[in-house]
Design brief:
heterodimer; A: alpha+beta; Arc Repressor Mutant, subunit A; 3 strands; elongated; B: elongated
């Protein structure tokens, strides 16, 4: 499964505790330093795909002032998928950093 | 309910009904929390970015899951393959019959019309062979060339003065048109057609030829008068093709094949049904054929639809 950046951030947002829809939007914005602001349609597209793959699941429902909130939690499979993706991204980042360092050295030596 | 909520619910109507039944309340809550739920909502409306995200979600849900999209792609490619196969079997049968004419003690007819038909038959065989061998561009060129023939026939089917072509005059060309359209839609360069055993084409052609020659033999032996012979010869090809489609549909149903073959057979059968519609008003000879075809179209469509992968990419968990 190809994990896009919004999916990656949504999974990360659910690591510490279950969150409801808007809670995920807020946390993703915070985690990305304000760079990623999920639209509601995008959020639910992401949640659909993650739940279809068994990476997140419903934790509980709450009704507050007549408004329905559904909280989602990370599953064990979700945690494993996030771990694998984080390692992949980290490995790619490490390769990029190594090459960039070599480039700086080469340019500095030129 | 404030104006912003009303407007957001209106935007959510872009989504399929079944999805709204599961998600609407939760999405409204999330959106109003996001928007800050203003007290004075007059003039407030969901921004275009928000509307676009709902439209995108709607499109994805309506197209269905990736597996479903793939199944529709397979269906389109099978329509092209089956259509080109029938055309090739018919063409090869024509070539065989033409070559067999001397067997009946007469010289082959060498009028320009016969030569055109012979050339078209050869090109239709080439189109099919090119497709199964992965030569998509060649298949498209040949199939388009073959297509000109039935279209020209449909256009010239009204030789009598005052007989204006009506829309129904184009119906006989549909079984040829639809597979070629599917060929252009479903195949890009390098895309392989599903595997077909090499003997399928000779077998199909032999079946059609055997039938045609058998009927001709009957006529020449004086066992059928000329009018009956003409009717038999006219319908023999259609009957054989329709029976082959029905048999293939039954085999697919019994073997519990996937959705694509059933849906493709349904579409191909529908094209023949459309082409035979004018016969409904001409004589009752074709009525059984039309009934069988109609039943095949409906049953294969229903069976194929039910075997499509789930349209819903998710099961919205509710507890």
């Amino acid at each position: 499964m190809n994990i896009t950046e919004p999916m990656f951030l949504a999974l990360t947002a659910l690591v510490d505790r279950p969150r409801h829809g808007y809670g995920v939007v807020q946390e993703v914005e915070r985690l990305s330093g304000g760079r990623v602001q999920l639209k509601i349609g995008t959020l639910y597209g992401v949640l659909d795909r993650l739940s279809a793959e068994g990476l997140v699941e419903l934790d509980r429902e709450e009704v507050q002032r007549g408004r329905l909130r559904r909280y989602y939690r990370l599953t064990d499979d979700g945690a494993a998928a996030l771990q694998a993706e984080a390692e992949r991204v980290a490995a790619n980042a490490a390769v990029a950093r190594t090459r960039l360092r070599a480039r700086h050295v080469a340019l500095g030596g030129a | 309910m404030n104006l912003l909520e009303q407007r957001y619910r209106f935007v959510l109507r872009l989504l399929p009904r079944w999805y709204r039944a599961e998600r609407e309340e939760e999405m409204v809550t999330a959106y109003l929390e996001y928007a800050g739920e203003p007290d004075d909502a007059v003039g407030a409306r969901p921004p275009w970015g928000e509307v676009a995200s709902i439209a995108g979600l709607s499109l994805r849900l309506r197209l269905g899951s990736r597996a479903r999209v793939l199944a529709w792609g397979d269906t389109v490619r099978l329509i092209a393959l089956i259509g080109l196969f029938i055309s090739a079997a018919d063409g090869l049968s024509g070539l065989l019959s033409w070559a067999a004419v001397p067997l009946f003690g007469t010289d082959p007819d060498l009028t320009p019309q016969t030569l055109v038909v012979t050339a078209v038959s050869a090109i239709s065989v080439s189109a099919y062979v090119a497709l199964v061998r992965g030569r998509v561009l060649l298949a498209k060129v040949c199939a388009t060339g073959v297509l000109l023939h039935p279209v020209a026939e449909a256009l010239t089917a009204f030789p009598a003065p005052g007989d204006a072509p009506t829309p129904s005059g184009y119906l006989p060309a549909i079984p040829a048109l639809v597979p070629v359209a599917a060929l252009y839609l479903g195949y890009r360069k390098g895309r392989r057609a599903p595997h077909v055993p090499w003997w399928a084409l000779p077998l199909g052609a032999a079946l059609l030829t055997g039938l045609g020659l058998g009927i001709t033999g009957l006529a020449l032996a004086g066992l059928a008068d000329l009018s009956v012979f003409q009717v038999l010869l006219l319908i023999s090809g259609s009957w054989t093709i329709v029976i082959a489609i029905v048999v293939a549909a039954v085999v697919c149903a019994v073997r519990r094949s996937s959705a694509a073959p059933l849906l493709a057979l349904s579409v191909v059968a529908a094209t023949y049904l459309a082409s035979l519609t004018p016969e409904l008003f001409r004589d009752s000879f074709s009525h059984p054929l039309i009934v069988v075809l109609g039943a095949t179209v409906i049953t294969t469509a229903i069976a194929g639809w039910r075997r499509l992968p789930a349209a819903r990419p998710i099961e919205v968990a509710t507890g």
